[in-house]
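Give me the 3D structure for DUF839 domain-containing protein.
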Amino acid sequence: MSATRRQILARSGALGAGIAFSGALSELFAGTAAAQDLGRTGYGPLVPDPAGLLDLPRGFRYRVLSREGDPLRSGEGPVPSNHDGMTALPGRHGRVHLVRNHENRPTAAHPVPTVPGLTYDPAGKGGCTALTLDGDRVLSERVAVAGTAVNCAGGPTPWRTWLTCEETEDLAGTNGYTKDHGFVFEVDPADPHRTGAVPLTAMGRFQHEAVAIDPARGIVYETEDAFLAPFGLFYRFLPERPLGGVGSLRAGGRLQAMRVPDVPDLSSVQEIGTRFDGVEWVDVPDPLASGTPIRLQDFGPRGITHAQKLEGCYWGGDHVYFVSSFARGADGSAADHYGQIWRYDPARRRLTLVIVFGPDTDVRLPGESPDNICLAPGGGLMVCEDGDGEQHVFGVTRRGEVYPLARGRQDIGTPGAPAWGEFAGVTFSPDGRTMYVNCYTPGTTFAVTGPWQG
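Predicted structure for DUF839 domain-containing protein (454 residues):
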């Protein structure tokens, strides 16, 4: 099952689409609720938006929930820049808590405002904001954690909080920071002061991307987004208090890195369905990376398994899935690819390559690759494209059929028009009726409704 970019364009009319899928997608959705209603070929061609913001199929509509630079409804300051990873958590009386990362570096136009009790390092510009929604109406919007740096992605917990991840390894004294960065922080969007701004140091200090928690065992899986060699690792964290609820991860635990015997670089694996039994987990020598970044530490004579651009991570059925956005030999990878999705089965200690994006397509820009990813409630997968030119949210079915669900408008040549960046943070409301997604820059959060089950 495969689709070239030209086939996608011919079928969908998605001019500029830069992504293609191949793989045994039935494996990906097996054992999940989303597997019950797959097989559709999409929702039809995208209709140009008269407002010039977001093109959607007929029957769908969007609402802008929040824009960078507008006042936060709390009055704490402007809405911060660089909207990235996000999740939607159920609240009381049918309300939804939307918690959103801001991947702010020191040069960010709108930093996350510092708030007493919620600020880790006053010099950090990143953090999270939380929106409380009643339908598509925003009831509140406020700072949930501040003073962090480069908050990229993360993941929800079974106890309805958010783990936000810093994608940096900057130490105190770098970029004016007063504290070390590269940690995970827990955020309770319903009551941010309940979680505060406490780094979960035992979970490691590295270039974090995303996390996923095994809801039966409480093991936390973590990806490391390292762009250049030596590339990142895939980790698991064994908490002292697994599934202990809010604040339990502060009790510490053991951090380990995945070793696939005789596979130093996952990019060397190209054939879909390839599986490795007997995956090993090796204790990280120095989780705080006090002297050496973890990916450079000594894991013994057998080494450790690396992969370029490890990004999305989520739990589905009895397995954890993680994404490698791309790999290219020019950067030091063992082979080129345009995106992989891997499945790890903890019970069997088995790793399987289940999806490959390209390279049997005419896509030539590895940056046009999968980034944030989630399961759709009506069946299928939603993938945020991260690349140049027009950006899309794509859907993919079990049959390997790809369709565009949304396209950001990019009128770079028009004076004063926004140059839309990548999509990020795609997630669905607990009832499955609304898709929330961010445009990274200018930071904008959309709520998309329509005939998801139609």
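The longest strand covers residues 137-148. Let me know if you want a second pass.
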